[in-house]
Amino acid sequence: MNKTAYINDRLYELNTGETILSFVKRHMNDKAIPTLCDAPNLDPFGACRVCSVDVAMEAGGKTKTLASCHTPVSENSYIYTDTDNIHRLRKNIIELVLTDHPLDCLTCEVNGNCELQDVAAQVGIRDVRYPAGDNHLHYEKDKSHPYMTSDLSKCINCYRCVRACDEVQGEFILSMSGRGFDSKIIKGLDNSFMDSDCVSCGACAQACPTSAISDVFQSKSVTSAEKTRTICTYCGVGCNLEVSTKNGEILSIQAPYEAEANQGHTCLKGRYAFKFYNHPDRLKSPMIKKNGKLEEVSWEEVYNHLAQKFTSIKKEHGPDAIAGISSARTPNEENYLMQKFMRAVIGTNNIDCCARVCHSPTALGMQRTFGTGAATNSIEDLDHTDCILICGANPTDAHPVTGARIKQTAMKGATLIVIDPRRIELAKYAQHHLQLRPGTNVALLNMMMYYIFSAGLEDKEFLDKRCEDHEMLREKILGLDIDEMEQITGVEKEKVKAAAIAYASANAAMEFHGLGVTEQSQGTFTVMQLADLAMITGNIGKKGAGVNPLRGQNNVQGAADMGAQPHQGAGYHDVTDPILNERYNTFYGTKVPQHIGYKIPEMFNAAINGDLKSMWIIGEDVVQTDPNTNKVMKALSSLDMLVVQELFMTETAKMADVLLPGASFLEKSGTFTNGERRIQKVQQVVEPIKGTKSDGQIIIDVMNRMGYQQPDYTPDGVLAEISQIVPFFAGVTWNNLGENGKQWPVAKDGTDSKMIHIEEFKRGKGKLYYFDFKESPEIEEHGKDYPYIITTNRELEHYNCGAMTRRTGNVELLTEDVLLIHPNDAKANHIEDGDMVCVESPRGKVDIKSFVTNEVKPGILSSTFHFPEVMLNIITSDVTDTEALCPEYKVVSCRIRKSKGKYKSV
Amino acid sequence: MSKNLSELSGRKGVEENLFDKMGKLAIETGAPSEEDLETLANEFLIGKSTAFGTTTFYDFLKPENKGKKAYACNGSACLCAGTQPAVIAQLKTKFKAEEIGHMTCLGRCHENSAFYYNGTNYSGNSIKNIDEIVTNKSQKIDSYHCEAVGNVVLTETYEGLANHYAPFKSALKKDPTKILEEIKTSGIRGRGGAGFPMGSKLEFCKNVDNETKFIICNADEGDPGAYSDRYLLEQRPHSVLFGMMISGYVTGASWGILYIRAEYPESVAIIENAIQELRDADLIGENIDESGFNFDLKVIQAQGSYICGEETALINSIEGQRPEVRVRPPYPAVQGLFNKPTVVNNVETLAAVHFIIKNGGSAYAEIGTGKSTGTKLICLDSFFNRPGVYEIEMGVSLNSVINDLGQGFKEPVKALHIGGPLGGIVPEKKFGDLTIDFESFSTNGFLLGHASVVSIPETFPMIEYLEHLFDFASYESCGKCFPCRLGTKRGQELMTKAITGEHKIDRYLLEDLLHTLEVGSLCAHGGGIPLPIKNTLAYFDDELSDYFAN
C-alpha cells in the first residue's frame, strides 16, 4: 500500500521524502501554490513564505502554517492550499514586498512575464496600506557588461540568482551584503558585473523572477512570438537551447529546465554568443577566384564550375587527387552526405574531419580496447560517482556545463583527481593535482597503475571475467623503474601513489579526458592506458564510472559515426573489408574504393607533393587551427582548386578558389551527437540568411550536378537513410528522438543506451595494453635548443578559431590570446606582465602578450589560438600521434625573449 | 545556506576556521581589508562575494565598524534604566562621535551604564572613571549577587579539575548508550528557549552514521536582560565544558566548539584558559584516559549578530557563511556544521550535565515540575532591590522570585519582559499567576525563554518599548525571509510614525502584520516578535489607544 496524504480533503499518493510543494504540484497543477523563491533547478530555500499552506495531522485537527517548499509531506496529513488564513498571509507578504518595489510594471522589461506580477495578481493585491517608508528604489542599474545587467531596485531578495551562481554554476560571484532590510545582492566585492569574476553563464538572469538581474537581450521579455528548441553548436555537451524569435530574427536564448543534457543550464557561448549568425561579415554569395580575386557568382555558376572541375581533376588525376574535410560543427546528416559525396560520387576514401586534430586517438584507442570509440557512460553518472579523474581536459572552459557539474560533484564531497600541466580551475578543487610535464601522460598513467597493482587494489574478478592480457600488463607495470618515471613526469611519486589509491579505492570512479590526452605523440596509447586504468579497477559497466571523452566540437562524435574518416565509413565499417565494402556498394549504388584514404596531415603532404589537386573543406579554418601554419598554407596554395564552405572569410577562406556560403546551426535542421552518444534534434530557428544555403543542400546540389541522384535535403529523409546503414542508429527516426534525443546504440525498437559494455565489451573481452613512455620527437630533436615547452589550450569565451565568437559580445570579455608564463621564467627573461613576448620554435615565431601566472610550472608556457592576430599555430609542430595522426598541439619546443618587434610571418 | 560553501569551509577543518580568520583580520582596523578578503576567498575557494557578504553582515566585521573605539550598550535593560544617554555623553569626552558604536546587551543588566572599550566591558559607576580607564586601562571586576534556592545544580561549587572530571572519566568506561539513558531519564529540556529534550537531540545525532560529528555550545547569549550564560561561562566554565565532552562521547563527536559572543570578551578568555587546563591534564585530545575517545575543544568568537543564537544561523556563522537561517529538514543533528551531524546546545543545558552524570538522571528528574525538570537560572535587572543571578527549581512562583529573591522593586514597575526580546511582556496584574516553568508561561500566553527579566518602569512609555522591540527585531533580522526582513522594518516605521504623530497606526494593518510575522516567518525571530507586541496591545490598550487611527 502506497503512502497517501490529503490535499484539500482529497486523498493522493505521495512519494517518500517529497515536499508538500512538489506533492501538490504533481497532483494539481504548477500554479496550485504560488511561489517566489522556489526554482526548478535549485534547492528549497524557504525565503518568500508565499508557498505556505495549512497542515493538520488529523481530519478537522488543529492546523499549522508551513512553507510547502521545504516541508516534507507527512503521511496521512491534511494539506489545505487555499484557506482564509493562507490567503491573508500570501496577500500580506506580497503587500510588504510591494512596499519596496517600483510600481512601474508597464514599462518594465519583464512586464507580462514577471513572477512577482503573476503572484500579486494571483493573490489579488489591490493597494499598499503602509505609509511610505525606507526603500531601495534608488539603486542604479549596472550596464557595465556586454551581456549581464542588473537593476536591484527590482530585487525582491529571493536569492535565486545567488543560489543559481552557487548551486548551478558553482562560481560564488553573487552573494548578499549587509543584513535585514538593507541586505543587497552583490557581485564580488560589491563590484559591477564587468569588474567581477563573472563567467557570464546567465544562470542568475534565467533564475531571477523579476528583472533585477537580466541580460542585454532581455531574454525574459515576452515580446518574442515563437520559441524553437535546438542544440548548441559550441561543444560536445550538447546543451538544449530554447531560442526566441520574432519576425524571423533571434531575440534571445534560454536553457530549458527539463533538458536532460543541460538541465536548465548553459554557458555564455550557448546563451549569449549567437549574434554572429546575422553579422555583416557573413558570406552571402558563392564566389570563384577569377584573376586572383574572389568574385561573387550565382549558385548556378558555382555548381557548374565545381562539377566541371571535380570531374576533370578526377579524370586527369584519378579520384584520390580529391579530398574532403567535413565539419564536426555540422549535423550528422551533412557529415553523412559529405562522406557519401567523396566515396560514392568522387570515388575516394579521402574524407576526414576535425576529429583528426582532436579526438581521433580516442576513437581509435577505445575501439582497440573496448570495441567502441565513444563514451562508456553518461554525464548524469556524475550523480553516482565518488571519484572523478580528469586527464588533460579543462572542462570549466571548454565544456562549461559539464565542468560546472563536475565542480558541483566535487563540492558535494566526491574525490577529484586532475592530471594536467596547468593549474586549471578544477585543480583548485581537486584533492590530487598531478601537474606533470606536457608529453608525459604515458609515464604518469603507468605510475598510477604501478601503485594500484602494488597495493593489490586491482579488481581481480573483473579482470578475470571480462579482460584479456592482464597478467602481461601487471608484469610490465610492476617491472617499471618508478624513480625514472618520477623524473620524467616531474610529479612526486608519493602524490601519484595517493591519487592512484584514491582512484582505485572508490566505489565508482569516473574518468574524463580531453585534448591534453589525444594531442600528443602518444595520444592513442594514453587513451588505451585510461581504458586500462578503468578496466583494472572494474570501473566499466557500472553507474558513476567509465571512460568519458569530452568531445571538443559539438558533433565530433557524430562526424566520426557518420564516416567522415578515411579508414571507416558510416557506422565505423572498415573500408578495406570486402564484405562491408560490398554493403556500401549496394547501399550507395556505386563502387566505393577499398583502400584507406588520406588523413588530414597526409592530405597536406600530398598536396605539397602534387598528388592531391583539390580539397573541399567545410567549416574548418585549417590555416588558423591546424599546426604549422606555414606548411598548411603551402599545401593549400599547391592545390588546383581549394573549395571552402564557410560562414565567414576565415584565414582558410581567404585562400579559396571557390567559396560556398553555408548556413549556421541556427538556420538549419539535422541532428548532433553529443559526447555521451546522445543524438539530439537541431531544429531550424530562422531561415538561412539571404544568399546562403544549408550545407547539406549544397552538397546534394553538387552530387546531383555530378550525376548522382540524391533527394533534396530534409533532416528526416537523410536520417532515415543513415539509420539503414549505421547499425547503432537502427531505431532512430526524426520523430522518435523527441525533446531529449536518444543515446546510441539505439535498437530497432527505439531503446537507447545510457551506458555501454555493461555485460561484455563490444569486442567481447576488454583488451589491456602496455606502453613504454617515449619522449616526443619534438623534445628529442629540439628540446636542447628550444628549452621551453608551450602547450596550447582554450579559453571559455572563445570557440576554436573564434570565427563565430569573435563576432559576438564575447570578444569584449576576452580580447586577445595571451601567453601564460611562470613568474620565475618571466623574471629570468626580463618579462613583465603584459609585455609582448617573442615565442620561437623551429617552425617560426610569434609575438604574444604575456600573462604572468602560477597556473603553469616553470619551463612551461601555455596559450590559445583563438585570434588570427597572433596565429599561434605558426610555431606548432608536424609531430603527430603515432597511431591516429592527431597533431601534437600540446608539446611544442620553443624559446622566448622579450619582444622587440612583430614576428608574424604569414 | 549553501551546501557547497559548507563543504568548502569544512575542507580546512576546525583548526583553520574561515570565520575565525575573518574575525582576526578585523582586530586591527575593525573590518577586514578587501585584499584580505580576496586572499581568504582564494584560500577557501568561496568567491570574493561570500567573503565580503559574510563580513558585511556582522556589527564588528562590517566596513562601517572601521575606526570604532568604544561601544555603548543599547540593550533593553539599559534602555529602560535610562542610563545610556549619560554614558554616551561621557564617552564623547574621550572619543569622536563616529568612534562610538553600539553593542546590544553586554550582560551588565544588574547595574546598567554598560559600555565596552578595548576588549573589556564596564558598567555601573565605571563610566565616571572613563579618564582612568582610557589612560591606565584599569579593569573593574564585575560582581553581582548569586544565590541558589533549593537543589544546587548549576551553581554548585567547583571542586578542582580532578574531582570535577572524575564522573567524566568513569563515564568513559561505560557504554555511551548508558550515558545517553541517564540524560534522557533526567528529562532535561534545552534552556536556550525552545525547550527541546536534550536526550532526543543527542540520540538523533548518535544514530547518524558518520565519522565526523560536532558538538556546539551556543554561547551567543544575545537576549537583552540575560546574563546567566555569562555567569556560567565565567564562573563555572568547567561545567559547560564537561557537558560538551559528555555530549561528544555520547554522540561520537570528536570536536566541541564554543561559539561565544564578542560582547563577552571576559568569557572568551576564561573559557580558553579552562580548555588549556584540560589540555594540560590530558582530559582532551587523542585517546582520552586510554578510552579510545578523541575530543578537542575550540572557541570561536562571534562578531555581533543576535540571529547567530538561532542554531542554523550559528552553524552558518561558524562556517563563514552569512548567518542566515536554514530550512529544516535537514536538521543539524543529521546535517549540520560542514554538512556533518551536529548537536547545538545552550550553555545552561550543557552545564546541567555534570549534575546528571554525577548524581544520575533520576536525581535531576526529581527536581522541578515533572514536565519541566531541574533548575533554572534567572537573572534580575537593576530595578530589583537585589539584582543578580539566581538558581531556582522549576515551578517556583514568579512572585517569590520578585519579592523573596529580588527583594522587590526599587521603583514602580508596570511590566516585566521575561525571556528575551521574543519573550512575553507580563503586566503587573499577571505576576501572581505565573510559576517559573515552560508550561505555566505558555498557558498564560507568555514564554519562559531563557528567563531573563527586564523591568519596564511605570514611567517608560509602552509605545517606545514597542518601537524598541520592532527596531531591535529589524536591526537583527537576517533578512532571508520576506515577512521578517520587510515586516519588522515596517512595524518599526509604524511605531516611529505614531510617536512623531506623522501617521496613526491602522489597527487592522498591524494585526495583519503581526499575523504575517507570526505564521509566515522562517524562524523564531520574526515568528516570536509578535508575542510581546500582542501582550502589550492586550494589557496596555489604554496607554496606547491614542496612537491608533481605529
How would you summarize the topology of this molecule?
The complex is a heterodimer of chains A (906) and B (550).
Chain A: E1 4-7, E2 10-13, H1 20-27, E3 52-56, E4 63-67, E5 78-80, H2 84-98, H3 115-123, E6 141-142, E7 148-151, H4 160-169, E8 174-177, E9 184-187, H5 203-207, E10 213-215, E11 226-231, E12 240-246, E13 249-254, H6 268-272, E14 287-290, E15 293-296, H7 299-317, E16 322-326, H8 332-346, E17 351-353, H9 360-369, E18 387-391, H10 395-398, H11 400-411, E19 415-419, H12 425-429, E20 432-434, H13 441-454, H14 460-466, E21 467-468, H15 470-478, H16 482-489, H17 493-505, E22 509-513, H18 515-518, H19 523-536, E23 546-549, H20 556-561, H21 578-588, H22 600-609, E24 614-618, H23 622-625, H24 629-638, E25 641-646, E26 658-661, E27 670-673, E28 678-682, H25 695-705, H26 715-725, E29 742-743, E30 766-767, H27 777-782, E31 788-792, H28 810-813, E32 818-821, H29 823-828, E33 836-841, E34 844-852, E35 860-863, E36 892-898
Parallel strand pairs in A: 1-5, 16-17, 16-24, 18-19, 18-22, 19-20, 21-30, 22-23, 24-25, 25-26, 31-35, 32-34
Antiparallel strand pairs in A: 1-2, 3-4, 3-5, 6-7, 7-10, 8-9, 11-12, 12-13, 14-15, 14-26, 27-28, 28-29, 31-36, 32-35, 33-34, 33-36
Chain B: H1 3-10, H2 18-25, H3 34-44, H4 48-55, E1 70-73, H5 76-81, H6 84-92, E2 100-103, E3 115-117, E4 120-122, H7 130-136, E5 145-148, H8 161-171, H9 176-186, H10 198-207, E6 214-219, H11 228-235, H12 237-251, E7 255-260, H13 265-280, E8 296-301, H14 311-319, E9 342-346, H15 347-351, H16 353-359, H17 361-365, E10 375-380, E11 388-393, H18 398-405, E12 413-418, E13 425-427, H19 438-443, E14 452-457, H20 462-476, H21 482-500, H22 507-520, H23 524-528, H24 530-539, H25 541-544
Parallel strand pairs in B: 1-2, 5-11, 6-7, 6-9, 7-8, 10-14
Antiparallel strand pairs in B: 1-3, 3-4, 10-11, 12-13, 12-14
Helix pairs in contact in B: 2-3, 3-4, 8-12, 9-10, 9-12, 11-12, 20-21, 21-22, 22-24
